[in-house]
Design a protein that fits this description.
33% helix; alpha+beta
């Protein structure tokens, strides 16, 4: 089954949440892109990074890829503060090491934090209730 066409299940929460959307470009190198995808697999991602993401209040995070373009969806509780959370995330164990390692694959400035690499996107359309 083609997951892209079948869709991806969405997690529901019993409390108000909000969503952030971000984008980032990868270097145009198929071998690097394949390794980037592999490094984000359950088997290869670093547990400290996943724990850190959760510890700053991120409930759900998904990354999608088309060509060299990444698209990330982040879901949080309604009272989540983006700047505070990402400032804290940058100080957590192995986070700087992970960001430096991911920079090999990404179009970004050397030493950039996650918040500096990923660009928040503006929502330009929402299908409201019928």
């Amino acid at each position: 089954m083609d997951t892209k066409k079948a869709g991806y299940p969405a997690r529901k929460f019993d409390f108000p949440t909000k969503r952030y959307c971000q984008t980032l470009d990868l270097k145009d190198d198929p071998a690097l892109i394949a390794e980037y995808v592999e490094r984000h697999s359950e088997a290869k991602r670093w547990p400290e990074i996943v724990e850190g993401i959760r510890s700053v209040g991120i409930l759900e995070m998904e990354i999608y890829l088309t060509g060299t373009r990444l698209f990330m969806i982040v879901e949080t509780a309604a009272d989540f503060d983006w700047d505070t959370a990402f400032a804290r995330l940058a100080t957590l164990p192995r986070q700087a090491e992970w960001e430096d390692y991911m920079a090999i694959f990404q179009v970004s400035k050397p030493g950039a934090s996650s918040a500096e690499k990923w660009r928040l996107m503006d929502r330009i359309f929402k299908l409201g209730p019928a």
